Amino acid sequence: MKSKIQKSGARARSATKKLRIGITIGLHNEAETLWNNGIKQNAVFLAEALRNCPNVESTVLVNTTHIPITDKLPWDLKRWPTVTFADAKDNIDVLIELGGQIDPAATEYLKQRGARLVSYCCGFEYVHAMESILFNKPSFGENLFVNQRYDDIWMIPQVDNISKPYFEVLRRQTAQVVPFIWSPVFLNARTANLPNNGEYQPRNGPRRLSVMEPNINVVKFCLYPTMISELAYRERPDAIELMQVTNAQHLAINCKEFIALMNQLDIVRQHKAVFLGRFDTPTFLAEKTDIVVSHQWENPLNYFYLEVCWQGYPLVHNATFCTDLGYYYRDNNVAEGAKRVIEAIETHDAQLAQYRDAQRAAISRFLPDNAELVRGYAGLLDTLIEKPIR
Question: This protein's superkingdom (predicted)?
C-alpha cells in the first residue's frame, strides 16, 4: 500500500510541475535561411505552440552542430531562445529531437538526469531511405545511428501512412500522430516590404501559372502539374500567358527524358513555358504568379500550401488533408485539375476578399495558439511524463 501511495504522490507532483523543453535544430551556417526547407520553421512553430501549453514553463531551441549561435539567425532570439546542447542539457526536462540528433553519450546524460527524449518526425524518411538505396543517393551511410531510447515518437499526420512502420521498427517504440503546426510569422516578416504585403492582386489579361514543386523526390514532382497546365492551355490558350516551372532548370538542361516528355506538350512547343531555378516562395508569388498548380504523392499537407492560400493565391492541388483550401482536385485526375485552373481563371478575382478570409479561417486550425491544438500537445506531454524512462 505504501508504494502505491508514493507512486500516486509522484504522479501528482509530476502533473503540477511545469516542464522545461528543448527542441533540437541542426544549423549549417550562422545565417541559415528559413526557406530552404521547413525543418527550422517546424522547430520554431513547435516551440511557439508548446509555450502556450499550461504545463510548460519554457521552450528553447537546441543546436546540435558546432555552428555558433549569433544574431545572424533569421529569427528573434529573445522570442525563441537558441542555445547549444551543452548549455541546455542541465536545464531541460524534455528534449524533442526534431532537426538535429544527439549521440549515445548525450542520451545517457539526459536519462541519468531523468529527462525524457522524444523523436519528432516530420520528414518522409521511408521515401528518403528507399531513394538513397535504390538510386545511389547517400544520406546516412554505414555509420547510421538510430537511437533506441526514445520515450515517445511523435509524427505529423502526413507522414503516418508511409513512414510509421519505418519509424517504429528501427526505433523500437510506438509512434503516434500529433497536431500539425504552422504560423504566418515568417511569411509576414518576409513579405512586409513587398507591394501589398505580397498578397494576391487581381490582374487583367492572361494568367501566369506557376509550378513550384521541389523536384528532389517522388512525393512532390512537377510532371502532373505541367500536364494539368497543358490541358488547361489546350482548352483556353487565350487565357494562359505562361507556365513557369521552378526547381526544374537542371532537368530541362541535363535530363533527356524530361526534355523529351516536355516537348510533347503544346504549351512548351508554342513557347509558353519556362523552366527555372530555385526561388524564394513569397517573392516569386508576389512578382510572377497568378495561379499555383501543385501535385503531391503521399504528402497531403505542407507549409507551401498554407503560404500560398494565406496570401490569397489560387492553389490547384490534390492534398487530401486540406481539401477545404484552394481549388482541390482528386488523386491524379489531371483533367479535373485543369477544370479547377480554368475555374480559378474565370472566378477568382471576383471573390478574392471572401476567398482570402475563408482560407485564413480554415488555416487557423494549424496555428500555434489554436485552443484544440494546444490541448493536444499539453495532453501529449502529460502522457509522456507518466511513462517510465527508457
Answer: Bacteria
